[in-house]
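Hey, resending since the last one bounced:
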Amino acid sequence: GHFDDPLQAGAVLPRVRFWQAWNEPTLPIFLSPSKVEHYVPLLNGFYDAVKSVAYTNFVIAAGLAPVKSSRTAAYPLRFAAEMLCLKRRGRFSEHRFRGGRCAAGRARFDALSIHPYSLGAKPGQSAAIDGNVFIANVPTLAKMLRLAALRGQVRITSATQAGRDTLEPDG
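The structure tokens again:
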């Protein structure tokens, strides 16, 4: 880094190498409207700016919320598929995808992040609504990312937040 450490005279703060563009753009509280065509230009501008400082900087896209929580929110798997220019065949849970056209333009990033909470579900229980992501739905996202990686679009995925309820509901 190049910035003085305010707590240690003569020391500098460490270089920041990992950067995440936005949080949960699938929720209108964070990005309104919650649409890929609004997020991708923001992400691409962010990517270009961060990489112009140091090309070795690592840009993480999003941090998608686990569920579509309101009428104006977006389904996280649909949002991810659109960002990755993939078209699904059937339900997301069927794991069938093919390459498609990038309606919002090709998104530029090094990794995609998602927040796969269980939200009261038992371990291994998938989200009841197709397009949402619980921990048990991560293999669907992994298949999407493998296909995108084969097409040279993404390197890795990360879960920057994950959780499971530790108390079972009463009854």
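The helical segments are 36-53, 76-83, 138-150.

Sorry for the duplicate.
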